[in-house]
Specification:
Oligomer: heterodimer
Helix content of chain B: over 70%
Order of helices and strands of chain B: HHHHHHHHHHHHHHHHH
Radius of gyration of chain B: 22 Å
CATH topology of chain A: ABC transporter involved in vitamin B12 uptake, BtuC
Number of domains of chain A: 1
Largest interface: A-B, 44 and 52 residues
Structural class of chain B: mainly alpha
Distance between the termini of chain B: 18 Å
Strand content of chain A: under 5%
Largest sheet of chain A: none
Number of strands of chain B: 0
Shape of chain A: globular
Chain lengths: 295, 371
């Protein structure tokens, strides 16, 4: 009976902790399917998480906070797009720089607004979400899946990442398609950050994403750049995370507690193995990372 | 003529640095600080005294190693974002050797330590090199993933195998005294050690390998055109594996300064992102070994200077250094700006507003490993 109860608990917490991953991975999916590498997911999540907490605090409404996250994520994504789509900066270099920027800007703004560079004031219960983000993330999954699969504009996104020249000769502007995908990517990653700061935790704290943007990237690759498998990968990684939290300090055998480090690295390890073709195969969009230049 | 060709290559990064730093300093205005005052604190914090300058050199040392690491991989056409993991593995290896072989004689111990650093980091670099060469999986994703795996692995080894029994901190026991390399009294206690000179030597060795040996020539050939290198009979896969292993070894050398020259032990999470800043260092130096030393000094000075901001200003913290770094990288990496500038320039010539034609290099210069 106790075993069953802890099973339900783990299932519940799996759903909760995979929410930020799912949002961010969907964002990464849109950007990467359109041909733009998005290592900056981590930074977009940070900015979104901060935006959510700051707006929720100042308007006293979690819903406004969520919109704040979308807005901040989009703003950050527009800057990112400016560099990688228009100025043709190397997408990996720029992504790394945007992660640094977010890691520096969020404590900088916290210091200016709240006179503390470690965390925002804590949010009372009524300023946080209880379950909403979990549902919304799965609705977003459905929307992204249907958009890419059944609409003409969704098809454009996919072609922009595979054969941008073909799209261009069909009279569709590749850059515009990529711009829209990258901005949506920022909105979704921003929501991912928001579900950390105003859903799972009760404030935004310095560097609170702690690599979740990269884990979302890993889920995206593990899910072969497809919406539904990516969501399943997020659940799997979320499960590892939930398990790891529960096993912290638990003695299963012998006298030593379980070394949780091994569970922590599992998502990254399976991603390496999947990419190497040991477990299934994962293939990136053909024109991923190649800037488009119309003739 | 030669100078005229080189001029834009030198000027462009300088302009980019100026623009990036100015933007970053302007940001402090939002926080209600005087940008000139912040600049003064940065410069004074980095170079104000012997101790400050020593700290700047202390931060410069790992950045030279990681910058060289990123650059070396780049010359073979690979992107090494994994220096952060490689340096952790290198540093842990130094600590492990220092703890497991406490009786190594005085003259041999430091050599053993350096070897451990190179091997530890090198293995961690060789893994993505092998995966890319033999399994075709992209090194960018693999190095990112290996950074996290290294973080987990090093903290497990530290907490379960080499734990310091006298401390609650996540750190290993201390290495034997024979492994410690001396610090210079000139810097009033700043932990500048022989590691700084090892870094300078590494820059020379990297330059020598890349431009004076057959191996280096082959590595650069693969980096510039894999198909051309193949048809010339060069084993591209082998060269890339080697390049990544050497890149990993270079990043691993960070452990020499940290474990043998500073902390006497491996501390989990000791690096404030040296591996990532290494990307900026290499980018700014256009992957040239000696320019990397200068570029590392700039970023080292920024890091040290910014650490003074916590105490000396009301509203700006050391996080400003991250913002400054990011802005410098972005300004350097935005190649399109120069294209745009080139087009404008051509337009002006067309309209007969300017007489002479610009050199083609000005418009076509790209961030790529040119010889």
């Amino acid at each position: 009976m106790e075993f069953l109860a802890s099973g339900v608990q783990i299932f519940e917490s799996t759903l909760r902790v995979s929410t930020p991953l799912l949002f961010a991975a969907l964002g990464g999916l849109l950007s990467e399917r359109s041909g733009v590498v998005n290592i900056a997911l981590e930074g977009m999540m940070l900015i979104g998480g901060f935006g959510a907490a700051a707006v929720a605090l100042s308007t006293q409404s979690p819903v406004a906070g969520a919109f704040g996250a979308i807005f901040c994520g989009a703003l950050f994504a527009i800057l990112y797009g400016l560099f990688v789509i228009e100025l043709k900066a190397d997408q990996i270099v720029a992504g790394t720089a945007f992660n640094m920027l977010a890691a520096g800007v969020t404590p900088f703004l916290m210091k200016v607004f709240y006179d503390s560079s470690t965390s925002t004031p804590s949010l009372p219960l009524e300023l946080r979400f209880q379950q909403g983000p979990v549902w919304i993330s799965w609705v977003c999954l459905g929307l992204v899946w249907a958009w890419l699969k059944y609409t003409p504009s969704g098809l454009w996104v996919r072609i922009a990442g595979e054969h941008p020249e073909a799209l261009d000769s069909a009279g569709i502007r590749v850059k515009r398609v990529r711009w829209i995908s990258v901005i949506l990517s920022g909105c979704l990653a921003g929501l991912g950050g928001a579900s950390l700061s105003i859903f799972l935790a009760s404030s935004f704290s310095r560097n609170m994403t702690a690599g979740r943007g990269f884990m979302a990237l890993a889920a995206l690759i593990f899910g072969k750049w497809k919406p539904v498998p990516t969501a399943i990968a997020c659940l799997l990684f979320g499960f590892f995370d939930a398990l790891q939290i529960r096993l912290q300090g638990v003695v299963l055998w012998g006298s030593e507690p379980v070394p949780v480090q091994f569970i922590q690295v599992l998502p990254y390890l399976v991603t390496v193995l999947v990419l190497a073709g040991v477990v299934g195969q994962s293939k990136a969009p053909r024109s991923l990372g190649v800037p488009f230049q119309a003739n | 003529m030669r100078f005229k060709e080189k001029l834009p290559q030198i000027l462009k990064p300088l302009i980019s640095i100026m623009v990036g730093l100015s933007l970053g300093l302007l940001v402090t205005k939002i926080a209600g600080e005087d940008p000139w005052n912040v600049l003064e604190i940065l410069v004074r914090g980095a170079f104000g005294s012997r101790y400050d300058f020593g700290m700047t050199l202390f931060y410069t040392t790992p950045l030279i190693f990681t910058g060289l690491s990123v650059a070396f991989a780049f010359h073979s056409g690979l992107f090494n974002i994994g220096a952060e993991g490689q340096l952790a593995m290198g540093a842990l290896s130094v600590a492990a050797v220092g703890i497991l072989f406490p009786n190594a004689p005085g003259f041999l111990a430091p050599v053993l330590g350096v070897l451990a650093a190179v091997v530890g980091g090198g293995i961690w670099g060789a893994i993505p090199g092998w995966l890319r060469a033999r399994r075709g999986s992209h090194e960018v994703i693999n190095t990112i993933m290996l950074n996290f795996i290294a973080a987990g692995l090093t903290s497990w080894v530290t907490l379960y195998l080499l734990k310091n029994p006298d401390s609650q901190n996540p750190e290993t026991a201390a290495v034997a005294p024979s492994y410690l390399i001396r610090q210079f009294s000139f810097f009033d206690g700043a932990p500048v050690s022989m590691a700084f000179f090892v870094a300078l030597m590494a820059a020379f060795v990297v330059w020598f390998i890349l431009w004076k040996t057959v191996l280096g020539f082959e590595i650069r050939a693969v980096g510039q055109s894999e198909s051309a290198a193949r048809s010339a009979g060069i084993d591209a896969a082998k060269m890339r594996m080697l390049a990544m292993a050497i890149a990993g070894g270079l990043a691993g050398l960070v452990g020499v300064g940290e474990v043998m020259g500073n902390a006497d032990r491996f501390r989990v999470g000791f690096s404030p992102g040296y591996g990532f800043t290494g990307i900026a260092v290499a980018l700014l130096a256009r992957n040239r070994p000696f320019a990397i030393v200068a570029s590392a000094l700039l970023f080292g000075a920024l890091h040290k200077g910014a650490s003074e901001l916590d105490l000396e200003t009301e509203n700006v913290t050391r996080d400003l250094s991250l913002i400054l770094q990011a802005l410098v990288i972005l300004c350097v990496s935005a190649e399109g700006v120069w294209d745009l500038a080139g087009e404008r320039y051509k337009l002006l010539i067309k309209k007969k507003w300017i007489r002479s034609a610009p050199s083609p290099e000005l418009a076509e210069e790209h961030y790529s490993p040119k010889v």
